[in-house]
Amino acid sequence: MIDVLVIGGGNAALCAALMAREAGASVLLLEASPREWRGGNSQHTRNLRCMHDAPQDVLVDAYPEEEFWQDLLKVTDGKTNEELARLVIRESSTCRDWMRQHGVHFQPPLSGALHVARTNAFFMGGGKALVNAYYRSAERLGVQIRYETPVEDLEIKDGRFVAALIPERQVNGVHLAAERIEAKSCVLAAGGFESNRDWLREAWGQNERGEYPSDNFLIRGTRFNTGTLLKRMLSLGADRIGDPTQAHMVAIDARAPLYDGGICTRIDCVSLGVVVNKEGERFYDEGEDFWPKRYAIWGRLVAQQPEQIGFSIIDSKAVGHFMPPVFPGSKADSLEQLADQLELPRETFLRTLQRYNKACRSGSFDHTKLDDCATEGITPAKTHWARPIDTPPFYGYALRPGVTFTYLGLKTDATAAVHFANQPSKNLFVAGEMMAGNVLGKGYTAGVGMSIGTAFGRIAGHNAALSCLDRQPV
Q1: Between vectors from CA 459 to CA 409 and to CA 98, what angle results, nearest 5°?
Q2: Are 225 and 373 in contact (CB under 8 A)?
Q3: Within this chain, do residues 62 and 180 fall inside the same structural domain, yes or no?
Q4: At what angle do helices 65-76 and 82-92 cross, to 10 degrees?
Q5: pLDDT tens-place string over residues 93-139
Q6: Residue 258 to residues 19, 203, 211, 262, 266, Cα–Cα distance (Å)
Q7: Is 215 inside any structural domain?
Q8: Are 430 and 296 in a shared domain?
Q9: What range(s) does the FAD-dependent oxidoreductase 2 FAD-binding domain occupy (predicted)?
Q10: Do 110 and 142 reside in the same domain of the chain?
Q11: Residues 106, 96: contact at Cβ < 8 Å?
Q12: Exposed e or buried b for every residue in 132-146, given b needs 16+ CB within 10 A?
């Protein structure tokens, strides 16, 4: 019998597998996807948010625990478990050396439009390189890895893991029989349910306009996160955490693919212009805070608009101050022409822009700080980086809600144990998106998902190995 079974194939699962193997346990990792799509949402990531009290290798200045905590507190509106959040924050300060031991490389500090050279460590080669490095290290250490092996059910007895059930399936034209895999302990790291269209529809329901908002959602992440295991765990009585409608949801290019669009589908000029809905009206403060701290609220904001679509509008003054999108937007020499290209009601759109332009108060524009360029006398206000949109050419980008991962998950504690009736399991642990709702009740800040996955993946893997030796989790 295997010691530790890890279900999932992304960052959290890999961290768990590596830690369990380092602790001396035999490890089997089951990844639902084919090898070429391995890595879950982690393959689409770029960075890790890290606490540090002084400059450290690829991180400039300092980003102390309290500032990290306040950033998280702000984006979640207090919907977070402080004990677990601070655990993630502290773990983020010490994980990079361990990551390097497993082949992960970090690139020199970034500067300019991303504003995160101080807070986030970027992976050389992005998330795909990180995932590949972890898989190479796992194979070298003797972790058994099986692809195209989805788990459809678990056997749980009195809160203890007994076995995982694999359905019969076709792989490369070969019929594989159903399997039952026993293990002394198990780590669940199989992601959320963002790619389950039926579950999204059930969670979001209909709005007052009779629409099913989720029908217009795009999925930034992996198509393999269907939530099968999460739903089964909840039906087996595992304690739940989080709101099923809350998610890391970004406003992305409306032309993005249905699945796996990744980071390159993001539109990063929102804070430098205005955003209108299909009726040509603004609906939120575009300059509320730095983009890396607020970009993840915009998917939900767009989801609340008619037909779940918005339009980011800038003029030529904004060009060069943000990461350019992969595909060019609509371009016009006048706002009238831009309205027509975007199929927006011209009269309302022009009135919205005229009111906004008139409300802008002159200041010292600086996109690298919370400047004093703001509006007066309009609702919603724009509190920073407010400049008239008056210099052609003008640009417009259609936006759709892009779901990265969902926050409904399994309740846990500092040992990463799954809870049943408020009691921690002795041999079943959880990491990554399946428990991120303990830290992220709502909102997001750049790189914190990887911080959560890395911290709890390492904790879960270590404690799963200890449970095989009948030692208490730490």
Answers
A1: 125
A2: no
A3: yes
A4: 130
A5: 999 999 999 999 999 886 554 567 899 999 999 999 999 999 999 99
A6: 34, 19, 19, 11, 14
A7: no
A8: no
A9: 3-439
A10: yes
A11: yes
A12: bbbbebbeeeebbbe
